[in-house]
Specification:
By secondary structure, this protein is mostly helical. The chain is 51% helix and 7% strand. It has 14 helices and six strands. α2 runs antiparallel to α3 and α6 packs across α12. The chain is globular and about 65 Å long.
Length: 303
């Protein structure tokens, strides 16, 4: 496993625009918090349905429907249609947990960032593939058991992992559900009083450890969770390789300077892809590479 320090990049106008879009999307997806009615949306984002939200991430709904022995047409359609057209665009422009990662990266911009090599970037992604595949297998097994009439037994066996196996451990769920509830009810101080520490469920400690670990990863590896762990990113990455919209290079203008690769928050080796189209499982169509190119060689393409 090899790494090199990632050059510090400036906060370009496009990045500012993208962050504004992300913030607007976050508020639109949580209209219930402002007591504004909204239709329930299913989008390929890393965000569970909460008491405040008017939306739910496709992978979370996919788990619940499989576990309930329901054919998951809605989340599958969300993945296929949006992923097939836009690729991983929602990861960069609309995902609340992606916004969280970008904010952490901005706050800790003074910390030296590290960029894994191309082979390491791809091999580490296998962690997310294992999590995604394992979660779907478990949810499918639970759904088959429920369909055979054994819901009570399987629910007792899996406990908190019954309906959404991955949601229990997901730092996005911890961020958007556990933390707001603890703060909302004002029990944070009471919960972590020394005399109460022994009575805290071990699962809460595990979730807290995963959440802290995710933050540490994000600090040193830009969008580290998006790259290697997030099941939504894993699924959308495969679809993004064949999406209609993506970025490419004008070969007559490109001088192979590598600036596009330096600014890429996902570590995509752009120059190793055919000029007509970057087809990488990591590319989120954030478009950072376009304004960064001094030769105007990078461009948005619709194929």
């Amino acid at each position: 496993m090899a790494w090199h320090k990632k050059p510090k990049t400036n906060l370009t106008k496009l990045r500012i625009v993208r962050m504004i879009v992300q913030i607007i999307m976050f508020f639109l997806l949580n209209l219930v918090f402002f007591e504004i009615g909204a239709n329930w949306l299913v989008l390929p984002i890393n965000m569970p349905q909460t008491i405040f939200s008017s939306s739910e991430g496709s992978f979370f709904l996919l788990q619940r429907m499989l576990s309930r022995a329901i054919i998951p047409l809605i989340p599958l359609a969300s993945f296929l249609i949006i992923g097939g057209i836009f690729g991983r665009l929602f990861c960069a422009w609309g995902c609340p947990f992606g916004l969280f990662q970008d904010i952490i990266g901005l706050i800790t911009s003074w910390v030296k960032k590290y960029e894994p090599t191309h082979s390491t970037n791809n091999s580490m992604r296998q962690i997310g593939e294992l999590i995604t595949g394992g979660t779907l297998l478990i949810s499918t097994f639970i759904g088959i058991s429920v369909g055979l009439g054994n819901q009570a037994d399987v629910e007792a066996a899996f406990g908190s992992f019954f309906e959404q196996p991955w949601a229990v451990l997901s730092p996005a769920v911890f961020l958007f559900t556990a933390i707001p509830v603890i703060v909302y009810w004002g029990v944070l101080g009471e919960l972590f009083r020394i005399e109460n520490l022994g009575s805290i469920d071990i699962l809460l400690w595990i979730r807290l450890a995963i959440f802290i670990g995710a933050i540490i990863m994000i600090i040193y590896i830009p969008r580290g969770w998006c790259r290697w762990i997030c099941p939504v990113g894993i699924i959308m990455g495969r679809l993004g390789e064949h999406s209609l919209i993506g970025v490419g290079r004008n070969i007559t203008k490109c001088n192979h300077c590598g600036i596009c690769e330096d600014v890429c928050p996902m570590g995509v080796q752009i120059l190793s892809h055919p000029a007509e189209r970057v087809r990488s499982v990591h590319c989120t169509n954030c478009l950072d590479c376009i304004p960064a190119c001094d030769e105007d060689a990078m461009e948005l393409k619709i194929l």
